[in-house]
Amino acid sequence: MTTPLNERRIANAIRVLAMDAVQKANSGHPGAPMGMADIAEVVWREFLNHNPKNPQWANRDRFVLSNGHGSMLQYALLHLTGYDLSIEDLKSFRQLHSKTPGHPELGYAPGIETTTGPLGQGIANAVGFALAEKTLAAQFNKDDFKVVDHFTYCFLGDGCLMEGISHEVCSLAGTLGLGKLVVYYDDNGISIDGEVEGWFSEDIEQRFHAYGWHVLKVDGHDADAIRKATIVAQAETTKPTIIICKTVIGLGSPNKQGKEDSHGAPLGHDEISLTRKALGWAEEAFDIPNDVYAAWDAKVKGAQSEAAWDEVFAKYAEKYPTEAVELNRRISGDLPEEFIAQADAYIAEVNLKAETIATRKASQQAIQAFAPLLPEILGGSADLASSNLTLWKGAQGIQNDPAGNYVYYGVREFGMTAIANGVALHGGFIPYVATFLMFMEYARNAVRMSALMKQRVIHVYTHDSIGLGEDGPTHQPVEQIASLRGTPNLNTWRPCDTVEATISWKSALKRADGPSALIFSRQNLPFQIRTQAQIENVEKGGYILAPEVGELKAIIIATGSEVSLAIEAYAQLEGVRVVSMPCAEEFMKQDISYRETVLPAAIRARVAVEAAHVDYWWKFVGLDGRVIGMTTYGESAPAKDLFQHFGITTEAVVAAVKEVIA
């Protein structure tokens, strides 16, 4: 190996911090940080363009640790290079309320770009970062100014490449030619169960060649080889690069390096003593010498890099003031000041049209109305654009035009959703992605991650119930809406007509602190007549659509296509009100006085109707109430026959109301 002693000692700071923090916590993964320390030393000290004093600098390089179980690698790097992450924070690794949880979590430590841990999603987020960078650069850069110009660096391991999502996203990254994505593969041949040869034997080099990537192979402990490979990777602008780094897990541990013993457990005090000796590290636990700190410190260099970019941006703003203002707005995540008024004006138009159409069509019309007002919208569908109706007249695929606004994701529901998370995290875009509601299941964990990270991602799901008919139970969602509603920090909208569909889009676009799932019908749904006050209340998630005549005796709660059944039943009953509940999460955020106005606690005679699993609605109707919906999977037949077969009918609603009143 050609690694100079001083570089190895600098890298060893990562190794000792990782093994010390894991040992103190008596929990964690020391092996990956110790094995990847030499790669990290080169990338972070020589190539990563960042400013520890301003972690949100717009043109910083993005770094993603996809193998997030090795989180002490990233925490050590942040601490050593000068971020606001103290040695005491490292000593609190994996403890309650610390900045250093077991896996990198967005919002805890400065410099963490994304939450990683579910293997494979980190590389998916990295693809999203690189996609966003390329598209934003194409939209704003000029021949004389490159104000969007940064790399995305990603570390990953065997587990990430075993997960199927890595195939989805790396395949697409090659097709899109994301040349500023550089991935370092920690090829150590070890996972929790031992040597991976018995269950992971594919040729990674050929696999990535097949994707259309630029592939390099190096000794992952040879700093000079890593350096040269990174320079070559940066020069390849038409393809993403993977650098396959052959490493030894837990390097430095005399008895545990190269073994699964170092993967997911503390080394132990005795082994740590032996490791310190083997590394030539005389200092005590958590003690980093000043000369090593000085070698790592990136604060001055980072400030200089940002200052140089600020000068370029100032000149850009002078020559292209409109573009500069718009770029700043988009990076900040603020909507245009006039958007809400424009959206409300469009909603008024929709109300006047009173169209009876499928809500998926109403969704497309909303996109058509809003997208020209919001150039940050970046849409996409999992090979279902003609069914999800996600294309609009101004849609331009980025495959043909890097400055476009639409991504043809192909049949990659999971990858698509995790990439969208990365796009949102990067900034400058509001991504929406679409598939059939049933196939949300493929993307489920990425939907959870967008909610966990509080990202403004809009998940569009069509074909929302047994109403899609002949495709049968494999395509008919039953439990999916309840699954989405059970996800913390996710707003799930199931509108009943054009007005509610349009307002669901407005709400999702406004919402800056989390994602929204918009669930639309395949079949046409009747338009519901409302007052202006009712239209304003739609955004509250639940409202009185049809007020009772006379004394209130019972309440019918409905969503989506079943609102029309509730209205039909209402016409046959007395003393009944219909509450449309397009978004229960938003309804529950309203103050108690509003909720009491809509659903007075004294009225226990309640019926909920929805062509989905019944269990969700019991909390709204109580033990005295009734829920009309699905308790089994669907069948293959025309939609009308299915609603009759499963008892989701006007007659059933009327009968249920009479039962609860009696």
Structural summary, described in words:
Helix content is 44%, strand content 14%. The chain has 662 residues and is an alpha/beta fold.
Instruction: Give the distance, in angstroms, between the N- and C-terminal Cα atoms.
Output: 85 Å
Biggest β-sheet, characterized? Answer: 6 strands, parallel
Inertia-based shape = elongated
Structural class: alpha/beta
Q: Number of helical segments?
A: 27
Query: What is the residue-averaged pLDDT?
Result: 97
Radius of gyration: 27 Å
Low-confidence stretches: none
> What's the helical proportion of residues?
40-55%
Q: What is the total tally of β strands?
A: 20
Strand residue percentage: 5-15%
Widest β-sheet, arrangement of strands: 10-9-11-12-14-13
Quick description:
The protein has 27 helices and 20 strands. The protein is α/β, with parallel strands linked by helices and 662 residues long.
